[in-house]
Amino acid sequence: MSPAHFEYRPIDQSAAQIRVLTLRPGSSDDPISCTLTHHRLQHETNYEAISYCWGNPNRDHLIYIGTISLRVTKSAHDALRHLRLKDRSRRIWIDAICINQADRNERNHQVQLMAQIYKGASRVLAWLGPASSGSDKAMKLVKSVSAKSVAKPAIEVWHAVQALGDLMKRPFWSRTWILQEMICPEKPPLIGCGTQWVDWDTWASASPLSLGSELEDILNPKASILGGQTVEAYSEALEVFSGINYQRGLTSGLHQHQGITDLIRLLTLSMNSKCSDIRDHVFAILGMMHNDSTIPADIQPPKPDYNKRVRRVYTEMAKFAIESDKTLLILSLRTH
Question: Membrane spanning segments where (predicted)?
Answer without folding.
Answer: none
